[in-house]
Amino acid sequence: MPDRETVTVNRRARHDYDIMETFDAGLVLTGTEIKSVRAHRAEIKDAYAAVERGEAWLHNMHISPYEPGSRDNPSTRRTRKLLLHRREINRLLGRAVERGLTIVALKLYLERGFAKVELGLARGRREWDKRQAIADREAKREEQRALSVRRRSDG
């Protein structure tokens, strides 16, 4: 989409977790926080979502203080509210509790001026799972290389 600008991506999440399903959620931010996000001064590598008292919250997302906004800057790692429909919250909560899954932040982006976060319902990988995923990715890459070399020599 042309009106979607990616701010930051949690590349580590796809390595550490198997992503079962993704959701998009709005993010409640203060004025100085959204200015920092628009300046690409945010980090979501440790961010995860939790449902508490019927509301979804994003924990551990870091937004650097907005320099011109001196005293109005909130804490950099404060818990931020996520905007989801009730049925999405219930579905996330049910699946996370029932199957022992976690909800991790995958991407922070701006859409039509609003900050949004892509959440993934994820199951943690064990060390051998990670090695297997790397081996599969390398094999696929080698296969693509061989095909591209063959195409070049045929053409």
| Strand-pairing-aware structural class | alpha+beta
Give the CA-CA distance, first to last residue: 34 Å
Number of helices: 4
What share of residues is helical? 25-40%
Overall pLDDT metric: 86
**Radius of gyration from CA coordinates:** 19 Å
CATH topology of the largest domain: Small Protein B, Chain: A
Per CATH, which architecture of the largest domain? Beta Barrel
Uncertain residue segments: none
User: At the first level of CATH, what is the class of the largest domain?
Assistant: Mainly Beta
Overall form: globular
Order of helices and strands: EHEHEEEEEHEEH
Strands across the major sheet, in which order?
Answer: 2-7-5-4-8-9
- Report on the biggest sheet: 6 strands, antiparallel, barrel
> What percent strand?
35-45%
Quick summary of this structure?
The protein contains four helices and nine strands. It has helices at residues 11-16, 31-38, 86-99, 127-154; strands at 4-9, 17-27, 42-43, 48-52, 55-59, 62-63, 80-83, 102-111, 114-124.
Describe it:
The protein has four helices and nine strands; from the N terminus they run E-H-E-H-E-E-E-E-E-H-E-E-H. With 155 residues, it is of the alpha+beta class. The chain has two domains: 121 residues, Small protein B (Small Protein B, Chain: A); 30 residues. Strands 2-7-5-4-8-9 form a six-stranded antiparallel β-barrel. The mean pLDDT is 86.
